[in-house]
């Protein structure tokens, strides 16, 4: 049994039996395929993931009113910093400059990804071969194309 599943069971009945994994309404959840993970372990992950959708009250992301509106396209944001970042799409402003080449970016995160090209850092490693990637999305795409990596769709019933 994986360490993660063992941890999750600490927050649920001692054994993930059929009654714990029984769910009332059907829903789909996609989980990364992991060799050796039993069906009951996938169901445990799926139930815990899904139960978060039944939390009382609005989601954290929707609690703040979107009062900061873009003058150009009327898109609204919860924080002034989000509006400022968005406005760069319209103005073309690129305040984040690479110190090693001539490139500039409209978001700090884009500069951080770019800097990995200069440093050679490849923090995202393929689980099946020796390849490394600067971005997680590129690693996942490689795993899907080169190694037939798939997500496993679990259909469960919610109680």
UniProtKB/TrEMBL annotation:
InterPro entries: Znf_C2H2_sf (IPR036236), Znf_C2H2_type (IPR013087)
Tree of life domain: Eukaryota
UniProt keyword Cytoplasm present: no
Pfam families: zf-C2H2
Localization per Swiss-Prot or TrEMBL: Nucleus
PANTHER family assigned: NOVEL PROTEIN CONTAINING BTB_POZ DOMAIN, ZINC FINGER PROTEIN
Protein name as annotated: C2H2-type domain-containing protein
Protein's organism: Saguinus oedipus (Cotton-top tamarin)
Taxonomic lineage: Eukaryota, Metazoa, Chordata, Craniata, Vertebrata
